[in-house]
């Protein structure tokens, strides 16, 4: 049996009884925390920064979380604000309306700030909101700055995109290229250059390079956020807006698709006597579009029109004709905004019937309007033109249901959005609703001089606090194409007002009515040829078309004569106060 003898060197201590290992001090992080914690934080920060810069999924995850949280915070905060505002009790209707208006402004401002911070397609989302004419004006006016609040891509980014997409440098393609864009939008920016191959001065549309990288993650976040808002606040439904963006944005981001649209609209107006001018496409790449450069002014620039002796009344009417031909004759129309339009003096070789041409820019997004929907919308519009009667009122509601699945309770909001005016008698005032002594129009032709008191009829038709919900319900039901037609109608009214025209405010309605008549008559002829309409009915339709069209034409002539008298009166007043220069400016609407 062996015996183990343990020998200890030095003085014995309490540590020697606990371990056979040499004496050591236990690791205690807290004794060096001043070094360990900052070091760990620095290491994690470095790893995170490296992943963000070099690992695309990590960068996308970080940015997606940040952008989604901004939008969700703004949207949910606004929804809560609405619920609290609408739930309060107010001492008067004026106090309630003021509170709701302020709530609109607060909520819209929160969303605006979130969209500006996120940038990219979120700016496009805000532009869509600004174009929804049935939304409260506080929302559309708050979002309006997004039309011009877009950051430009630095020149270095544009140069890199040319090299990657075109396989050539900017210097190889252009003799001269202005590095400062003349226009910046949410999806692209436009530069001016001199194209070597064609030898022409050109406008070069270049897509923002970052859009492709973040498109899928951004659109997913938009739809996810809108979906959560719908889940928690079912009455605030905007999921359709996300679906529309997913469908349309890829088209707008494909400049080859835009070039095809340009060729089609040129063909649509090829044999038409019109002032519309479409710039020529010289070269098209998915993210770079080289076009003919157009020099002109804004269509509502009264000083520019005066300088070139362009009649502002004719400009407003011609714009309305262009829009309506696209919608009701071609069934294929542009999602126009005022920024897409330029006006210039017509050349001797121009096809314009006037002394000006209207250039339509940016052909990325067009909408189809199938035959049945186009005809039903036309019939709806013609019923709005007609004087109110039980039969006409029934037709209005019938075609509203066919066009947009609009129920009777939502009809007042829908009609006000289409016409830009208050609904005619017999529509706003429900049989069991409050009556008014206000003398009201019975059709759109009588709407030239309505008064503010009629607003009470709208407020009394829809339950207090429910107007916004009704608007959102209308937006949810309407086909997107109908919504875009309404946007075009609103643009025509806006430009007619901005141009300070001297004709009646319903003058442009007459143009729309004539194109609606043409659309219905064309459909009747097609049905007759296809055997779906008898000879008697066909002849009856021909008589109605001829008589009603002539009647509208006569009213147009009378309104244009009255407009010329107003302009002549302004000329005389200007001449009396400031001589010939004053007469010219007064007739041009400059003062």
UniProtKB/TrEMBL annotation:
Organism superkingdom: Eukaryota
CC terms in the record's Gene Ontology section: mitochondrial inner membrane
ABC1 atypical kinase-like domain: residues covered: 146-388
Example GO biological process: mitochondrion organization
Family: Belongs to the protein kinase superfamily. ADCK protein kinase family.
Protein name: ABC1 family-domain-containing protein
